[in-house]
Write a structure and sequence with these properties.
- The chain contains 27 helices and 22 strands.
- The radius of gyration is 28 Å and the shape is globular.
């Protein structure tokens, strides 16, 4: 429709897979190499997985277009809703073999005779099974049996299994152990990065004679990446509509604002946020030229240039006294927690450790910093968390000063206590400090929540998490995408285990204790009218840094919340630093208490009660994103990135940034239809602590030192 207007010879962004448009990204190049390697090996199974729209079918068709048909006879199964008997018939049909008889024995004999005939002609057969995640376990087992066909020492049939990530979950089951042993190579096809997304778009356009008409602004390419996450099918869908809209408007340029507008139109049309903006600056409304919001200040990383501290930290903790003698190796694991989430995970893991006789004791180290979460007795009691065995307090200072002080204290503690292993979590400063200290002292490091990436390198947490991953001896992940991130960064798969999400374990245990919101509001003298709106209420929660610590972003967010609260009452759970800014600058002056109420940080059982019955949640906290998905509550993330991508792809989360237009539209969708419906990701089942201790026990059995260990008092 628009091709002649732009001088194109064809449509560049059709959704149907077309090998003539194949783009050799790093991921696709690696996957194609694995497939070709499999062809060269001429035996066993090759497994390639990828998310919906990642380009798996295009990859297969590209492979088929390159093979030598005089030497390889390839057949493809594209309908895999098959049982074992149906699969056998479909395989025979795919190879073009006239069936002889209907019994299973006759079908097997027919297929074996055909494959043997090919072998005598110096040809071999390859069966490509697309959408293999839909196969039943019996059908997969039937494929394994077919791989037993041999002519002399030559395998008669080789199979390629192509499917979505669920296929990997199936192959991990104990019942498919024999097939798993015959997998000679496997690869997961992830999304393209920012630069590859741009090259992909330009590649497809040039295939049809594009000569910079229409012209794409540099920011438009970035915006396309941010809305599509680098998934080829999403890119095709969005770019096709962009070209159509530009043609209908008789335009010649495509801007970032055009991309955002069309992406939101598509999302509204299909009723699901298939296109999800994950990493960008806020989009200003096109009708008014608004200044771009100031970027929140972030804590410098160890590689940043930093100014001298405003004052010299006073190191007063007694642990700073230099140790002269290293303590004996202690038969205990030491778990580090420096945040609300760290304590939530620790509670679940403590309970699981208590049931094991094949693991050392689990000791808890809590690191407190000024202005950050501090564990209280109320929190500990309802979480079932034992009193910490060690507490380190970092004095006020610049972020780098706090890091230096924390390292000194941890160095002394680890030198004196000498634990058998150190467990760190995520990418907070506590995890990085503890990992650095343990790595220097040779203490084994176990990293939980490993491999999570937002792909925003300006965030200290991103660099922290990457450094912790590379120092760790054992990496425990909560979602499959983390494995792809770790593989791209060169971390060996034998150091990585998929266990699931510990937050789910604690939330499940906490639900029977969850306090009804009316009691929480009554405790803090908030209006009960907040709960009487027939469409419910929203929860706002900001973590200790970011939006809630900077005045300008906070002013903008407050204005948005005031507007939203006219239709949906909001309950804002905020820390002391944010409340101080709100009060100092009178940001909520004149706001009706029946529309917007403010609460301090509340114990976990009260927070779960607030989130669990809310209509939606607005947050910049990755933990609250997890909790919202677990509880089935629509979540609007106030950043344009999230390391918890699984909550966007499978859960209830949408990344909206602090863009007023996006937030208002998302809330309108929630009020109109209830908002995004998600599902629980794999292994978010309340059994993660059990799986974690199972893996830790196996790991410990291999690593436990032969020398006598000291049992802690």
């Amino acid at each position: 429709m628009y091709e002649s207007y732009f001088g194109l010879t064809g449509a560049p962004f059709l959704l149907n897979p077309d090998p003539s448009f194949y783009f050799d990204s790093r991921g696709h190049s690696s996957a194609l190499s694995y497939l070709k390697f499999g062809l060269y090996q001429a035996e066993g199974f090759i497994v390639v997985t990828g998310d919906i729209g990642a380009g798996k079918t295009t990859l297969v068709r590209t492979l088929l277009s390159d093979i030598d048909n005089d030497k390889v006879v390839a057949a493809q199964l594209v309908s895999t809703q098959l049982e074992a008997g149906d699969l056998l018939r479909s395989t025979i049909t795919a190879f073009g073999i006239p069936p002889k008889g209907q019994s299973k024995a006759e079908l097997i004999a027919t297929l074996e005779a055909y494959l043997t005939l090919l072998a005598t002609q110096n040809k071999r057969a390859v069966l490509i099974v697309d959408e293999a995640q839909n196969l039943s376990r019996d059908a997969i087992e039937e494929l394994r049996m077919l791989s037993n066909f041999q002519f002399g020492n030559q395998a008669l049939l080789q199979s390629f299994l192509i499917g979505q990530p669920e296929l990997r979950d199936m192959l991990l089951s104990r019942s498919l152990e024999q097939l798993r042993q015959r997998v000679i190579a496997s690869y997961h096809l992830g999304p393209m990065d920012r630069s590859e997304t741009r090259r992909y778009i330009e590649h497809r356009l040039k295939k049809v004679g594009w000569n910079d008409h229409p012209h794409f602004d540099d920011d438009a390419f970035d915006e396309i990446f941010q809305w599509t996450s680098g998934i080829p099918r999403r890119i095709n869908l969005l770019c096709n509509r962009l070209l159509l809209a530009t043609f209908l408007a008789e335009g010649h340029d495509i801007t970032s604002a055009d991309v955002a507008r069309i992406a939101m139109e598509i999302r509204a049309e299909i009723g699901e946020p298939t296109l999800t903006r994950v990493d960008s600056h806020s989009i200003a409304p096109t009708a008014v030229n608004l200044p771009e919001p100031q970027r929140p200040l972030v804590m410098p990383t160890l590689t940043d240039s930093v100014e001298a501290p405003l004052e010299t930290p006073k190191f007063s903790n007694e642990l700073l006294n230099p140790a002269t003698v290293r303590g004996p190796r202690t038969h205990a694991f030491l778990m580090v927690a420096g945040s609300r989430t760290g304590c939530i995970r620790a509670a679940a893991l403590q309970k699981a450790f208590a049931t094991r006789t094949d693991l050392p004791a689990l000791k808890l180290l809590v690191i407190n910093a000024p202005g950050q979460f501090e564990l209280s007795g109320d929190w500990s009691e309802h979480l079932g968390l034992r009193e910490p065995d060690f507490v380190l307090r970092v004095p006020p200072a610049t972020p780098v000063g706090q890091m230096a002080d924390g390292l000194r204290q941890l160095d002394h503690l680890l030198h004196e206590y000498n634990p058998a292993a150190l467990i760190v979590q995520g990418g907070d400063d506590a995890a990085l400090m503890a990992s650095l200290a343990a790595h220097r002292q040779g203490v084994p490091i176990i990293h939980m929540e490993a491999g999570l990436r937002s792909f925003d390198r300006s965030r200290p947490q991103e660099i922290n998490a990457m450094m912790c991953d590379h120092m760790a001896d054992l990496l425990l992940t909560s979602e499959w995408v983390a494995h792809d991130n770790l593989t791209r960064e060169g971390i060996s798969a034998d150091r990585v285990q998929f266990v699931g999400n510990l937050v789910m374990d604690t939330v499940r245990a906490m639900l029977p204790q969850a306090s009804p919101p009316k009691y929480t509001l009554r405790q803090f003298d908030q209006s009960p009218e907040l709960l009487k709106n027939k469409q419910g209420y929203g929860i706002v929660h900001l973590h200790g840094g970011g939006i809630g610590t900077e005045l300008q972003p906070l002013i903008e967010l407050t204005a948005i919340l005031k507007s939203i609260s006219r239709d949906l009452p909001m309950i804002w759970v905020t820390n002391e630093a944010t409340r101080r800014l709100i009060n100092q600058h009178h940001l909520l002056a004149g706001v009706d208490g029946a529309q917007l109420g403010v609460l301090p940080v509340v114990p976990y059982y009260k927070m779960i009660g607030l989130i669990g019955t809310a209509a939606c949640v607005l947050t910049d906290s990755s933990t609250v994103q997890e909790e919202s998905t677990i509880l089935g509550v629509p979540c609007l993330t106030l950043h344009n990135y999230t390391e918890r991508r699984i909550t966007v792809e499978q859960g209830t989360n949408i990344a909206v940034g602090c863009n007023s237009s996006l937030i208002h539209r998302a809330v309108a969708e929630i009020l109109r239809g209830g908002g995004k419906k998600g599902r629980l990701p794999k292994f978010w089942d309340g059994l993660t602590a059990s799986r974690t201790t199972e893996h830790l026990a196996a790991w410990w059995k291999q690593r436990a030192p032969r020398e006598q260990l000291t049992n802690p008092a």
